[in-house]
Design a protein that fits this description.
The protein is mainly α. The chain contains five helices and no strands.
């Protein structure tokens, strides 16, 4: 897993325990991390990679509840680029 050490310290244990199913609070941490990252505008592909998903579809299916607000924000940003402020 690439990235900053503090994030790795948070995500790596969650990733391990999620696979073994031994520690539900770590799964909550994974979910919180993904939701916060997507809400902050980090691309879903990057979030998916950081969580160790085999493909982006898993992240998109699991965290789609975060995406509607992102769609609106993206549309507004593109409109500003095309139409100006």
């Amino acid at each position: 897993m690439r990235g900053s050490a503090p994030v790795q310290r948070l995500v790596r244990p969650a990733r391990t325990s999620h696979r073994t199913g031994t520690d539900p609070p770590n799964h909550d941490l994974r979910h919180s991390y993904a939701t916060a990252a997507l809400s902050a505008g980090i691309p879903a592909e990057v979030v998916s990679e950081r969580l160790g998903h085999a493909n982006i579809a898993l992240a998109l299916d699991t965290y789609s509840h975060v995406l509607p607000n992102m769609q609106e924000k993206a549309a507004e940003q593109v409109a500003q680029l095309i139409l100006g402020s």
